Every structure is written in C-alpha cells, then in structure tokens.
Amino acid sequence: MKGVKLCGLADIDAERRNLVSKEFETTGYADYRRLIERERPDFVTIAVPVRQHFPVASECLKQGIHVLLEKPASDRIEEIEKLISLSETSNCLFTVGHVERFNPAVQALKELIDKDELGTITNLVARRVGGYPPKLTNIGVFVDLAVHDIDVFRYLIGANPDKIEVQRLNVHSNSVEDAATAFLQYPSASGFIQVNWITPVKIRQLSVTGTRGHAELNYIEQTLSIYEHNVNPEDFSEKDFVEFLGKYGKPMSRSVKVERAEPLSRELEHFVLAVRGGTELLVKPVEVLETMKIVLSV
After folding, report:
1. Which residue among 92, 100, 209, 271 has its CA within the 20 to 30 Å range from the CA of 64?
2. Domain range spanning residue 151?
C-alpha cells in the first residue's frame, strides 16, 4: 500500500515468521509486545485466534496504537466493551474486520436501498456455506460465519432483530457445531441465514426483497442484479387476473455495474485513511458491540 510501511510482524511460528518477514523485507518478532516496544507502529492489524483477541488488542490500545481487529471481536461481550473503553481513553481508533461491508457489490446494494429503489425491505436471505476451514476453532460455524451476515443485515436496514431463533447441528464435528440456520425477526422485515462447513461447494449469496423490487447479490463474483415488477397490481381488477399473472411473471431485470475490488484491500485502505483523519470508520465500535450481542445471544 502506498504511503504505508510494514515496520514489523509478530508470529509465534518461527518458520512462517521468517518466511513472511523475508518476503516483505521487514522484521519478524516472536512476541508482539517486543514488536510494539521496538517499532512503535502507528496502527496494527490483529489476526490471532479469537481467545487471544482481547489480550493482544488491549495491550496495543493501552500503548496508544490504533487497532484493526479480525472478526469476531471476541466471544465475550465484556471484553468488547472493555476494548471500546480502552480505545476511548487512549484516543485510538478501534474497529473490527467485518470485511463484507467493503465488498463493492454490498456497497452498491446499500446505495440502492438508501435511495429507496427497492422500497421497504421485507425479507433478507443469506447463504454462506462451504467446506471446513484449514484449522477448526472453538467458536463454531455460527459465530465464525453468521457474524458476517448479521452485520450486513444491520448495515443494509439499520435495525436490530427483535427476535432470533437458531438451529445448530454437529454433522461431522463433535467439538463445535458445523451447520446452523437462523431466523431473525426485524420490526418490518424477516431474515434467514444458512451457514455451514459441510456443503461441498462454496456459496456466498444474498437475496433482498422489498416492496418495489428484489436484489440478488453474489459476494464471490461481486455481481448485483435487480428485478422489478413491470405492472402495478392495483391497476388490475379481479376479472383481469389472468392478464395480470401473465405480465406479473415477466419482471424487468438489470445488472448493476460493480467495479470489482479486493474487499480486504479496501478495508485496510479505509482504516489507514481513518487513522490519518480523512474519514470516519465505516464499522464503528458500537456497531461491533451490537452485532456480537445478537450473535452471542444464541
């Protein structure tokens, strides 16, 4: 990234630490506290196991370093609240990598919804399924994957669910659930989320239905299609029902132009800009807290 210097990295794995530090011509440390002491970075990105998020992030914030923390922020609400408090007292930026917000297709859909082109949102359906990750964690598929979709739902409609019901299954793993479905009831909409590590094909899709139209989004391909009725049901009487059905079943469709980009790169660029005071955080700490309250409530 232009204008950014990778001043160091920390990893307890010596082979990986040496390999990556050599590739990127930087200094590798076995202990992140040593990196902080020697390099005094302006900001850090933290991608350690979830149970280590709090001790590493809190130490960085105490040292006056801006923090971009991988999701989920923590599996304990009190730790997230403490990190937010530390960021405020140290006057440091603190955010979490809800990377799907930086997907160009998601941002294009958000813009359409804000312009009321889909009307009032009535339904959201997300599928985030695929094979097992290279390393299983102790948090399970729901916390690991559904957190993305719950955050995107909040981002798109600006509301928390009044009610959430989740079914979790242990299909192949005995230690953590590897499949889950969730039903979320919002004030004026409903949401459905399917996540698992057992589907042989990787699928990342989102469908959003509103009173004026319907959107189909593919996270991986970064495509967005909009479907709209070409007739108004109120223009037809009951005797015109057959004619109405014929026209109603032929919606107008269009593909929204999306400039494809790597979401993680966009997330990092946004964070650097925020550190420099050029923008506000897209993922604010209070939103991180609200999302995890929803996830951990089940």
Report:
1. 100
2. 104-221+223-257
pTM for the whole structure? 0.90
Q: Looking at the structure, do residues 89 and 43 belong to the same domain, yes or no?
A: yes
The CATH number for 278's domain is 3.40.50.720
Question: Is 270 contained in some domain?
Answer: yes
Q: Please list, residue by residue across 238-273, b when 16 or more beta carbons sit within 10 angstroms of its beta carbon and e when fewer do.
A: eeeeeebeeeeeeeeeeebebeeeebeebbbbbbbe
**4 lies in some domain:** no
Quote the Cα angle for 56-57-62, to 5°: 100
> What is the residue type of 128?
R
Concatenating the DSSP letter of every residue in 139-174 gives SHHIIIIIHHHHHHHHHHH----SEEEEEEE-SS-S
- Residues 205, 276, single domain; the answer is no
Query: Domain holding 117: CATH number?
Result: 3.30.360.10
All residues at 6 or more sequence positions from 238 whose CB lies less than 8 Å from its CB, including other chains: none
What pairing do the DSSP bridges indicate for beta strands 179-185 and 94-97? unpaired
**Under a CB-based contact definition with an 8 Å cutoff, are residues 119 and 209 in contact?**
no
Please name which of 290, 82, 112 lies closest in space to residue 215, comparing C-alpha atoms: 112
Q: Name the domain count of the chain.
A: 2
Confidence of residue 238 (pLDDT cuts 50, 70, 90): low
Q: For helices 53-62 and 32-39, what crossing angle results, to 10°?
A: 20
Domain identity same for 48 and 145 = no
| Chain segment 30-79, per-residue pLDDT in tens | 999 999 999 999 999 999 999 999 999 999 999 999 999 999 999 899 99
pLDDT in tens, 247-269: 666 678 899 999 999 999 999 99
Residue 129 is which amino acid?
A: V
